[in-house]
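hi support,

uploading two proteins for the ticket. first:
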Amino acid sequence: MTGYLTTHVLDTARGRPVKGLGIDLYQILDGERHLVGNAVTNDDGRTDEHILPAARFELGGYELVFHAGPYLTATDQRIEGPHFLSDIPIRFTMSEAVHYHVPLLLSPFGYSTYRGS
């Protein structure tokens, strides 16, 4: 089996998928971030293509950065002042050539993630 990476973003405050949220994917090599690609979530809160397709998959450390600030502004989920959450980095390691799914559950003042399926 060849590995690949997917993601999904859900707005837990509004109870719906997050549309239009920008995501950057970095590979971590020798402690340095290297941009691998980026995407924007669709109507279902997913990216149209795998964020890291099988053809580009490599084992190792990665970081997804979810750009939540513009989404929270667009959906009027901002209290006075700047956002509590703006860019949300999630670092993880892929140690097997399998499907990894790293979703984000988002609200204006918190988030969570897990290794999905």
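and the second one:
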Amino acid sequence: MFDHIKEDIAIVFQRDPAARTHWEILTTYPGVHALLMHRVAHWLWLRRLFWLARFSSHIARWLTGIEIHPGATIGHRVFIDHGMGVVIGETAVIGNDCTLYHGVTLGGTSWHKGKRHPTLENGVVIGAGAKVLGPIIIGAGAKIGSNAVVVKDVPANATAIGIPARILQEDISAQKESAKNISFTAYAVIDDHDKFNHEAMSKALQALMERSATQDIKLAEMTVQLQLLRNDTQADSKLASAFDVKPSTKKKTDKK
């Protein structure tokens, strides 16, 4: 238990620049409190003390604003930042070194018993407000953007954004190489200095800029062609005026 507490405090220092002292973290971070109380509730759950486990998690929810079912399995060095509104279902599994921000839901899509909540492998980061639903697997090192709704598996080291979430298409080998160099990215936002990973908005803007540049080139070509056509028309008009070419208006008369 004490080893878990030390890990919980140490990981906050690594992932939250606002953290100042051990005492501050231990007394004012609801994510740390929720995890401590969950371990007690989970211990009771495994010993089939179901009501007492649920009551313990209910008290934790009331105190922290974070709802973790006592049946959920949570690994080491998990960080829940801010935490308000986080919901973690009964059969959810969270690996080591994962990070969840406020408003995250690890929920189910079925009323049937059995595995119905997500599994997060090691090193997953889930941005604020994201919903990960169903018995899906989020691969190690994957990042889920804020407010995304994920209903399908996400490969390791991939980035998923949008509603429903889609995978940003990037070179997998480049992702794996960059993942070794990036220890943590807050809110699942990628480091701007990493040439292999860019924020989704930057990619969209880049595509729009390229399309705009292509259209500008086409418009310039059309303008040149129209100008040439106009010059040809003016030249033909001047040539016709020089020879005084006029249509004949004299009517032909039949010879009697």
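thanks. also noticed: The radius of gyration is 32 Å.
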